[in-house]
Amino acid sequence: MFAVIKTGGKQYKVSKGEALKIEKLKTKNRKNFEEGDKIVFNEVLLKNDGKKTQIGTPLLKNARVEAKIEKIGRAPKIDVIKYKAKSRYFKKRGHRQPYFKVRIEKIS
């Protein structure tokens, strides 16, 4: 059994028990997510139970994927350098992308 979900502007093929890294999510209220919290993905594009495949147009109704946040972290640092030869122009910036590591618990 697997499903295709949409979150953070990307699509992921997920199955039960699988762990994956997704973009950091924001909450509707003022409370931030913490490790151990449950997340429900309602934007399910495709669902396959081994016998039948359901394809949404563009989303499936009454389909959801439940997951649990295992880790909240930041990816390794990426250095962004802008340089122009012979003109004394040099800019260096760093960036660490935040992410959630989630484990899929239920597809329904």
TrEMBL record:
Per UniProt, the keywords (alphabetical) are: Ribonucleoprotein, Ribosomal protein, RNA-binding, rRNA-binding
Q: Name one GO molecular function term.
A: rRNA binding
Against InterPro entries, the record matches this protein to: bL21-like (IPR028909), bL21-like_sf (IPR036164), Ribosomal_bL21 (IPR001787)
Q: List GO BP terms, alphabetically.
A: translation
State the Pfam families in the record: Ribosomal_L21p
Entry's Gene Ontology cellular component terms? cytoplasm; ribonucleoprotein complex; ribosome
* Superkingdom to which the source organism belongs: Bacteria
Q: Give the family this protein belongs to, as stated in its UniProt record.
A: Belongs to the bacterial ribosomal protein bL21 family.
Q: Describe the protein's quaternary organization and the partners it interacts with.
A: Part of the 50S ribosomal subunit. Contacts protein L20.
What is the purpose of this protein? This protein binds to 23S rRNA in the presence of protein L20.
Q: What is this protein called?
A: Large ribosomal subunit protein bL21
**What organism does the record attribute this protein to?**
Candidatus Campbellbacteria bacterium CG22_combo_CG10-13_8_21_14_all_43_18
